[in-house]
Amino acid sequence: MKNYCYENGYLKTIQEGIEGVRTFRGGIVIPEEDPEAELKRLKQEIDTADAIVIGAGAGLSTAAGFIYSGERFRRYFFDFEEKFGITDMYSGGFYPFPDDETKWAWWARNIYVNRYTDAPKPVYQDLLGLVKDKDYFVITTNVDHQFQKAGFDKKRLFYTQGDYGLFQSSRPGIEMTFDNEEWVMQAMAAQGFVLNENGVFAVPEDDRLSMRIPSSLIPFCPDGSEAAMNLRADDSFAEDEGWHRASSAYADFLRRHRNMHVLYMELGVGRNTPVIIKYPFWQMTDRNPQAVYACLNYHEAYCPAQIQNRSIMIDGDLSNILQKLK
């Protein structure tokens, strides 16, 4: 394992989150204020804050149209649904496929749809329009690369849980990653997908697709080990140099703005990984009297009672909220 000389902002933020869980004992508060008044408060905070820390969860990509089930799923995975009974892209990632050729056919489609296609709605672009002239930093558990595709500064992004666009070794301890775009395009074509007039892979008119890729296309890493997705599922997740660089940049950003007027803006963070974004944001707001916490979420907007007077809670669809903020 490589030893990178970078500060571990990921570990620090988790420690903040754990400490926050122990600290907040006054109960949880849900929104009661007028949503329009809260929108005005948030817009004012965006305009006047010295710095903005954006924490983004899966709800932000869902609002952008990256839905893992329904029509979007069936468009690319109808044959997997018919044969294996899989009903969404998330659960399909854990399915025990009969062979590697089928498994990697599935993953080629999953990666392509969620990494190399554009989001149906301009949610990320709307968000960038609000903060592009501010001193901002983004920490996210999303792995779909949408922040960079929308134009966010790469040096101000920390993808904590990996990237659909990267492979890593299946062998634990090899802290290296590899771009997979070329492989994905080859694997999509090998299954029978065709490029339409917009340069997007689509199902052919006769709906005939292969659910297996050729054995020669099974991905391997330069060291000869079988490739795996660079997604944090256990302690085999590869934290490469780019990951450590982003982690350190996040820690540095937090340190430089610790006692300033900071807006911690949480977007679409659910209950799966609150210790990475939600709880640390609560803790950092509580410690800094000048800080403000904003929680924007659909049916999950809330905050601890301890920071209620410095919190903004807006319950609603993030696409609509960001449009109104514009």
How would you portray this structure in words?
The structure is a single chain. This protein is an alpha/beta fold and 326 residues long. It has two domains: 9-63 and 121-161 and 260-325, 3-Layer(aba) Sandwich (Rossmann fold); 70-118 and 181-218, no CATH class. Helices cover 39% and strands 17% of the residues. The chain is built from twelve helices and 13 strands. The protein has helices spanning 9-23, 35-48, 58-63, 70-84, 89-92, 100-115, 123-131, 146-150, 181-190, 241-256, 278-287, 318-325; strands at 28-29, 51-56, 136-140, 157-159, 162-169, 177-179, 194-195, 201-202, 227-231, 262-267, 292-297, 303-304, 311-315. It has a six-stranded parallel sheet with strand order 4-3-2-10-11-13, with helices on both faces. Strand 10, helix 11 and strand 11 (292-297) form a beta-alpha-beta unit. Helix 7 (123-131) runs parallel beside helix 12 (318-325). The N and C termini lie far apart (45 Å). The model has no long low-confidence stretch (mean pLDDT 94).
In short:
It contains twelve helices and 13 strands. The protein is an alpha/beta fold.
Record keyword descriptors for this entry.
326 residues; Rossmann fold; 2 domains; globular
Shape: globular
Instruction: Examine the coordinates and then state which fold CATH places here, giving the name of the CATH topology of the largest domain.
Output: Rossmann fold
Largest sheet: 6 strands, parallel
CATH architecture of the largest domain: 3-Layer(aba) Sandwich
List low-confidence stretches: none
| Domain module count | 2
- Count of extended strands: 13
Average pLDDT, all residues: 94
CATH superfamily of the largest domain: TPP-binding domain
Through-space gap between termini: 45 Å
Please identify the top-level CATH class of the largest domain: Alpha Beta
Figure out the total of helices.
12
